[in-house]
Queue: 4 jobs
Job 1
Amino acid sequence: MAARRTNVNRKHGIAAMRTLLSWSTGKDSAWALHTLRRRPDVTVVGLVTTISEAFDRVAMHGVRRELLEAQADAAGLPLHVLPIPSPCPNEVYERIMGAFVARQAAEGVEAIAFGDLFLEDIRRYRETRLAGTGIAPLFPLWGLDTARLARDMIAGGLKAYVTCVDPRKLPARFAGRRFDLDLLAQLPAGVDPCAENGEFHTFACAGPMFARPIRVEVGETVTRDGFVFCDVIPAKAGTHARLHEHSSKCRGCPPARA
C-alpha cells in the first residue's frame, strides 16, 4: 500500500497532492508547470521524461539531455529520466512506465499531470493506464482555447524554439524558429497554434516556471525518420558576448524583464 505524504498548503490550509509532471521539454509542459504551481491543491514534486537510448535525447522533441537537465535545475525540481529504445514498441513503453508509476505510488506520489490540450484519445489512454494505480491523472491545460493559450504563453514570458517539425503538416523552414507572435501569424491555415496535432515540438528556454533562462543557440537542422529536427545547443559565453556587442536581438538569449 502506498505511503501517503500529502503536503499541506500553508497559505490556504488545504491538502496539496504530491504531483509529478510529464515533461517533454516543450512549451505546453512548461506552461503546465506554471499553472500547477498556482494551484493550492497541488505540490509539484518532480518531472518525468523519456529519453531515447539511441540518441540520448528527449523522445520526439530531439532535445539534448544536458538541456533537459538544465530545465529541471532552473525549475528547482528533481528529474526522473526513463530511457526507452528507439523505436519503442508500445508494450515496452507501457512496461517501463508502469514500473515507474508503481514505484512512485509506493513513494507517496498521488498524481501525474500532463500538458494535453484537447485530444480525447490521448487523455483516455492516460486515464486508462493510471486506473487502479493509486495515482490520479491531472490535465491543467485541458480544454483551453489554443489560439488564446499560445498568446498567453508568449505574453506571460515563455520563450521557446521549434525543435521538430512534421513536414507533412508544416513547412520544414519552421524548424529552429522562435515560438513568438510572428511564428503564430505565419502558421498555415489548419495548423493548431499550440501544435496539439503534432505539427511541431518545442524547447522552452525561459519563462515564469524557471528561476533563470537557459541560454541556447540554434544549431544544425537534419531530416530523420520523416521529421525535421533542429538541434538546439547550449550557448557559449563568448558567442553571446560577441552577439551582444553588435545587437540587442540575440536569438538565443531571452530579453531581460523590466
Job 2
Amino acid sequence: MRVGLETTERPLPLAGGVGVGNKNRMPDWKPRNTARARELRNTATPAERLLWPYLARSQLGAKFSRQMPVGAYFADFVCRAHKLVVELDGHSHDVAPERDAERDRWMKAQGYTVLRFTNAEVMGNVEGVAEAIQQELIEKGNKVSGID
C-alpha cells in the first residue's frame, strides 16, 4: 500500500511467486542422506578406490557417482542415465546374502541393472571389470536406440 494516497493498490505477485498458479511448480524435493554417503565415500574399500579412477570423469562413456542413495540403499557406484548399479562384494556380503538378493530385487523393480563383482575380482583384474561395465553400458545404449 502507498501511504498518503486514497487508493489501496496491492503490488502484483512476481511471476511464479506465492499465489500464482501451479504452472511452473517446483517438483517435490526428496531429502537424501548425504552425510552417510559422504562417510561411505571417505571410508571406501581398497577395491572401490582401485575401480573409481576407471569410472570417474565419464571415462567409460557415462557419468558414474559413488556411494549414492538409490531408494533406501546406497549403491557403490551408480550411473543414473543408464540405470546401472555396480556393487563390489566383500566380506559383509558373504555374511548376509539374502540382503543382497532383496536389494537386487528392489533395484530391478525400479528399472536398474545390478552388476556385482567381488573385491578379489577388482583387485586381481580391475581392467577386466572396467571392460565388463563398459560392455554393459554399450548393450544398454543399444537397447535404448533399438539396436540388438
Job 3
Amino acid sequence: MSEQYLSLCKHYDTQNINMMNIEMISKKTQQKTEETNKKQKRWGKKFEDKRNWKEYNEGLVRRGELYLSLDFLESWDNELDKMNKGKKGAPFAYPEQFVNYMAFVYSIFHIPYRQMEGYLRKLSDLVSRDIAADYTTLFKRIAKMNMTLPETLSEKGEDVIIAMDSSGVKVTNRGEWMREKWKVYRGWIKAHIAVDIKNKETLAIEITDETVSDSEKFDDLINQTEHNIEGKKIERVLGDGGYDDKDCFNTLDKKKIESGIKTRINASTRSRGSPYRAKCVREKQKLGGYKGWRDKYEYGKRWIAEAIFSAVKRIFGETVRATSIDGMFREAKMKFMCYNILLKWV
C-alpha cells in the first residue's frame, strides 16, 4: 500500500470526522434553539429586571441594624408613665416597646429565655441603664404581648389582591427515627396566611393544629384582612384547590370580592349551594379551561404566599420550641409578625 494512498485515506477520514463534528454541533444548537422556543412559548417574553439592585441591597444590609436597634431607650420613661397611669397593683418595670424588641431577639436568634437574661445584663453595661429583666419576667410579658400585625405597607385607597395558603410548622426538631423507634407522635401545627401580592406582607394569620382544613379558616382570614387594611378593599383572592368550597365562594359573593380560587377539573356547573361558584366554573370553561382562566386572574402570583412561608422558615426556623399549645401558636404567629417588620427595612 503506497504512502500516497495512505495519505489520501487519512485526508478523507479527517474530513468525515470534521463533518460529523459539524453535524453534532448543528444538532446541539438546534436542540438549544428548540428548548428556548419552548420556554418562551410557555413563559412568554423574557423577564425584564427593573429592580434597583443598589437600593435593594442597601435595604437588606440595613436589616442588620434592626437586630441591635435600641430605639426603645429613647421613649423608655414616657412609655412607662403612660402604662402605669391609673394602674392597680405593681407598676410595670419594662415598656411594651422593649418587650417587642426582646420577642424579636427571641425569634431571630433562637435564644432561650435564661440566655436572654444574660444578654440583657451585658447590654445594660453598654447602654448605661439597667434593662436586665429576669427570664421569668420576659417569658410572662412576651406571653401576654399583643399579637397584632404591624401597620400595612399598602397605599391608602388602593385595592388589594391577596393570596391565601397554609403550611405546616414542626413542633419538635427530633427526627423520624425517634418517632418510629418510640412510636411518639407529636403532630404539627398549621399557619394559614393571607398575603398582599404587591408588597409581599402578611395581612392576616391564623394558627391551628393539623386537623383544621384551609377552607375552615377562609372567613377568619378575610375578616382579619379587611380589619388590617381599613379604608381599602379586597379586590381578588387567589387560592388553590383547598379553598374550593361553596362556603368560601359564598363569602366572596357576599363581600363582592373577585374569585381567583382554582376549582376542580370536574366541578359542577350547577349551583349546588353556591351560585357564584357555578358561575366561576362556567366562566372557566368559556375561557378554554385552566390556562385561559389562569392568565385572566393572574393565578400564578399565588406563589408569593409560598415564598413568604419559605422566607419565614429560612430566617426564623421551621420549628417552634414552646411545649404548650398556646405557646406554640404564639411563637409561630410571632415569626410572621417579625418578618413583616423586616419588610419595612427594605
Job 4
Amino acid sequence: MKEFSSKRFGIASAAAITALLSGAAVLQAQSASPLSSPSPLYREVIDETGRTVRVPQPVNRIVSLAPSLTETLYALGLQDHLVGDTVYCDYPADAQKKAKVGDTINPSLEQIAVLHPDLVIVTKGLNHLETVQGLDNLGISSYATDPHNVSEIASSTKKLADVLGAPEAGVTVAAEMEHHLAELQQHLASSSPKRVLFIVWHQPLISVGKHTFIADALRLAGAVSIVDSEQDWPHMSLEEVARLQPDYLVFSPSHSDAAGLTVDTLATLPGWNIVDAVTNRHFAVISDAVNRPAPRIVSAIEDLARQLHPDVFVERPEKLDERNPKEKPEKEKDKNEKAAPAPVPPPSRLSLLSFGPQCQTAILGGCACAR
C-alpha cells in the first residue's frame, strides 16, 4: 500500500512539475509575443511636399500652424479636435479661444508638445522647415499642405480630410466649392475680364505674381491681373502702373497697410493721381478670405465678381400675378407688347463655407498674405 501511495505521489509530483514548466513556457512565449503589448497604430501618407509621414490612428488631437488650415478644420467640422493654433488664427471667432502656440513663423515647440497632439498641420507657403524638423526631433508627426491655385485648395482640403479620418466631409466641402465656382463662371461667361491691380502693400507698392492662388482667384472673379511676374510678391512702381492703367484697384483690408486706405486717401498720396482707376474711383475691397488658401476663398471670389460685374448680378424682379390684371402696370396690359428678358439671377450665397465676420490679420516679416 505504501509502495502504491509512493508511486502515486511520484506520478502526481511529476505531473505537477510538467504542468508548471509548461505554464512557464506558455508565459514566456506570451511575453515574447508582440500581441501582449500592442504598439500604437500608424498610417503612412505622403504630404503635399512629398514627405512620407506616419500619422497616428485615430487623429484625435490636432495643432494648426496656419490660419488657412484652422479655417479648413472648421469647414470640415473637425474643430473639436483642434487643441491649439497660432495667434493669427482668428477665423472663425471660436478659433480665438483655442490654446495659442505662438506665431506662424516661430511657434513654440514646447507649447506644442504640452498639448500632446497626434498631428501638427503646416503649410509650405508660410511655415518654416526648421519648425517641421524640430517637431520630428520631438517625435511629433506633421503634415504639410501646398496648394497653388483655387482648384488645388479644393483638392488639398479633400486630401487633408482623408488624412484626418473624415473623407466624407472633404468630399462634401470640395464639391460645394466646385459647384459655386462653376455656377459663377456661367454668370460671367458673357463678360469681358476687368484688368486689375491687386494691392498687397502700397508703401512700397507690392502686388501678386501670376502663379499665386490670389491671381487665380482674380481670374475666377472675372478679372485679370496687370502684373505678369514670375515672383509671388513683386514690387511695382507707380510709373509702371500708370503705363498699364488697370480698370480697378483691388484691396483686402486684412493688411495693416491697406486697412484704412480709401480712394480719397490714395488720391492724396504723391503720384497716384496719374492712375485712372484712382481718378475714376474704381476700387474693389474684399474680405481677407482672398488671402487664405481655405474653402472660404470662394466667398471672396464671388464678392469681387459682384463688384467688378454688377450688371451680371441684377436681381430678378418679382413676377406679378398673371391672374390678377389689376396689379399690372398700364403698359403691361397691352397683349402685343413683348416681355423684357429676365436678368440673370445671382448665385446663391455660400452656407457651408462661411462662418462669421471678417477678420483682420497681418503677417509682418513673413509672406505677404495671411495663409
